[in-house]
Amino acid sequence: MKLVPLGDRVVIKQLVAEETTKSGIVLPGQNKEKPQQAEVVAVGPGGVVDGKEVEMQVKAGDKVIYSKYSGTEVEIDDEQFIIVKQSDILAVIE
Amino acid sequence: MKLVPLGDRVVIKQLVAEETTKSGIVLPGQNKEKPQQAEVVAVGPGGVVDGKEVEMQVKAGDKVIYSKYSGTEVEIDDEQFIIVKQSDILAVIE
Amino acid sequence: MKLVPLGDRVVIKQLVAEETTKSGIVLPGQNKEKPQQAEVVAVGPGGVVDGKEVEMQVKAGDKVIYSKYSGTEVEIDDEQFIIVKQSDILAVIE
Amino acid sequence: MKLVPLGDRVVIKQLVAEETTKSGIVLPGQNKEKPQQAEVVAVGPGGVVDGKEVEMQVKAGDKVIYSKYSGTEVEIDDEQFIIVKQSDILAVIE
Amino acid sequence: MKLVPLGDRVVIKQLVAEETTKSGIVLPGQNKEKPQQAEVVAVGPGGVVDGKEVEMQVKAGDKVIYSKYSGTEVEIDDEQFIIVKQSDILAVIE
Amino acid sequence: MKLVPLGDRVVIKQLVAEETTKSGIVLPGQNKEKPQQAEVVAVGPGGVVDGKEVEMQVKAGDKVIYSKYSGTEVEIDDEQFIIVKQSDILAVIE
Amino acid sequence: MKLVPLGDRVVIKQLVAEETTKSGIVLPGQNKEKPQQAEVVAVGPGGVVDGKEVEMQVKAGDKVIYSKYSGTEVEIDDEQFIIVKQSDILAVIE
């Protein structure tokens, strides 16, 4: 099952913090979500949205900062996603 | 009786979860609605809506994610439908 | 006395449910209004409304679904009408 | 003293119900105002209003339905008028 | 000291009712302000305001009806003025 | 340290009333601010602001009336300034 | 790790007041933030944002005044940033 966003929408997945113990062991997946940090999962085609031409500037795999409280949470196959408009994405983390 | 939506409106019907018992038997229609998941029933013609050209991007039969709290619930012949604007449809599920 | 709507406005009249008794007798006009279902009584000329070209897509006699809480209730010659903008009409029932 | 409305504004005066007694005698002017029914007293020139071309579609003498709670009540020479925008006039009564 | 309004702004001064006694003597200036009636004191140049071309339609000396609660009260040299946008002026009194 | 406003912004400084005693002596700087009266300190370049061409119509040194409650108060080097948009300036005092 | 803002967004970092003791010793970094004063860290590419062409007018290193309560606070690698739209930047401090 795959989410194909419409228009200028972007499917993102919140990033989970990797925790490194003092001894250097990485403990991934402790479900400690990094606030506002997410990975882009799927990107809409852009085009004319609400009467305005929108060009998509992020791509799947990008790590991004998104605007708090924006978007719609969706659960597909027991996985949590957030669907936001590209304008709710503030910056790419490089 | 058939609903023919105007403009950029789309008639959708909420999806009902199929439940599979542990033994593998599918129990359809337990009326457990999947939140925000719906099937497209009818699609308006698009065209100029509120002064802006809108092209319809979904079609009858598409499974879609729509924005919570959007749209108008309608009951026709004892069946429940929701009429939303296409812009309230966030993504197609493939 | 006749209502001639201006611009993109449409005069509608709420539909009253016909009730069928178990024996099959139709009991019309019990004043049980069908929510959001109405018949179009008169249609404005359309044209430039609020700076945007509007083409009228409904006609007198159409049965329509309209958006709850929209429009203005008007009483003319002891008959109740609702005047809505065409954009408050969601779908035509065929 | 005369009110000359600017732009797309229209000066209207609320209609007063003529009351007919059972014997057929008309009792005019009992000051029972007909809600939302008014007569057009003066019409602005239209033209570009708020950046949009507006053509005036009502004329002095028209009986109209106007939107409740819209407009500004004005008292000139002890007479009550309401100044509305043409877009607050929903329909002409013929 | 003189107020020169910018853009589509208009400086107005509320009218004070002349009171006529029963014997016909006019008692001016009892400081009984006529609500919403004012005299235009100065008129801005119009031009492009908020991206829209505005043509000024009132001139100094015009008696006008203005929209209640609109505008900004200003005191210059112990005189009270109100600065409104031209669109807050509803009608000219002739 | 100097404030250079962006776009259609204007840096203003509230005017302080000069007080003249009965004997004619001017007592400046009693810190009695004249409400809504200010002197223009610096003016942005104008240009395209929020998609609309804005031409600056005030200049440094102008005494102006500005809209109450508008703008952002800023303290630079212990001096108080207000940064407003030009559209919050209602009139120039000449 | 680097923040690359999208569209007309700007990454800023609040300025911390240098404190100078009476004897002239500068005490930097006492974490006394200067309200609304920030340094630009990274600037988006501008371009068409929400249907309007935006040209970026600030650059990394600029000291700016920004609008209180605007923007989104972000923590990256234990450093605090604020991501604002360029239109929330009121002035450059030179």
From TrEMBL, chains A, B, C, D, E, F, G:
Signal peptide annotation: none
UniProt cross-references to NCBIfam families, sorted A to Z: PRK00364.2-2 (NF001531), PRK00364.2-4 (NF001533)
Main location: cytoplasm
Function noted in UniProt: Together with the chaperonin GroEL, plays an essential role in assisting protein folding. The GroEL-GroES system forms a nano-cage that allows encapsulation of the non-native substrate proteins and provides a physical environment optimized to promote and accelerate protein folding. GroES binds to the apical surface of the GroEL ring, thereby capping the opening of the GroEL channel.
Pfam hit, one: Cpn10
Keyword Cytoplasm attributed: yes
UniProt-recorded name of the protein: Co-chaperonin GroES
SUPFAM superfamilies: GroES-like
Transmembrane segments: none
GO terms under cellular component: cytoplasm
Family label: Belongs to the GroES chaperonin family.
Subunit structure: Heptamer of 7 subunits arranged in a ring. Interacts with the chaperonin GroEL.
Single GO molecular function: unfolded protein binding
Gene name for this UniProt entry: groES
Subcellular location: Cytoplasm
Domain of life: Bacteria
Keyword Cytoplasm: yes
Entry keyword set: Chaperone, Cytoplasm
Species annotation: Candidatus Galacturonatibacter soehngenii
